[in-house]
Amino acid sequence: MTGPIQPPDLSTEKDFDGEAFAPLYTTTVTVTGGTAAHGRASGRARSDEGVLDLDLRLPAELGGDGRGTNPEQLFAAGFAACFHGALSLIARQAALDPTMISAEVTVAFDRNPQDGGYVLHIDLVVRWPGVTPDVATQLLQRADALCPYARVAWHGTPTTITLAS
């Protein structure tokens, strides 16, 4: 090894004044194969570089075999990792030790009573032993504003849907 990995020098301040979205990182995951049930697909999910390559299966609670991961688990993992990272960055900037932070995300899949479609409900629980609630609450609010998964969950995100030929 050549030394510790240095995280990117990303600001947590409102200092970006660009006019357009300019991606810092982009990835693509393709899901193929499988069967559809409950408006959901199973199959195989693979990232463009092949690092993510896993079977998707319906959970047993929805009639599946439960022998693979499902979209709710993937979303929960992504949200927890992103929020944990945002809060850890803010903690370091506040000269606090982030090593004891844990972010637990629960994603519930249900029917939407308003339109009959499907909806997710997200619960985020943060544990940070040794930090007072007053200090933690302020930093949680900053992490919430910084984490793009929180923005998706609470405010939506620009999305495009394209049918390729």
Explain what this protein looks like in three dimensions.
It contains three helices and seven strands; from the N terminus they run βββββαββαα. α1 (71-93) crosses α2 (133-146). 27% of the residues lie in helices and 22% in strands. It has two domains: 26-69, N-terminal domain of TfIIb; 70-156, GMP Synthetase, Chain A, domain 3, CATH 3.30.300. The strands form three sheets. The protein has a three-stranded antiparallel β-sheet with strand order 1-4-5, with no helix packed on it. Strands 2-3 form a two-stranded antiparallel sheet. Strands 6-7 form a two-stranded antiparallel ribbon. It has 165 residues and is an alpha+beta fold.
Question: Can I get a quick summary?
Answer:
This protein has helices at residues 71-93, 133-146, 148-155; strands at residues 29-32, 36-37, 40-41, 43-47, 53-56, 102-111, 118-127. With 165 residues, it is of the alpha+beta class.
Structural descriptors:
single chain; 165 residues; alpha+beta; N-terminal domain of TfIIb; GMP Synthetase, Chain A, domain 3; two-stranded antiparallel sheet; 7 strands; 27% helix; 22% strand
Major pleated sheet: 3 strands, antiparallel
Query: What is the strand content?
Result: 15-25%
Q: Percent helix among the residues?
A: 25-40%
Number of domains: 2
Overall shape: it is globular
Spatial strand sequence of the major β-sheet: 1-4-5
CATH homology superfamily name of the largest domain: K homology (KH) domain
How many E-type strands? Answer: 7
Radius of gyration: 19 Å
The CATH architecture of the largest domain can be named as: 2-Layer Sandwich
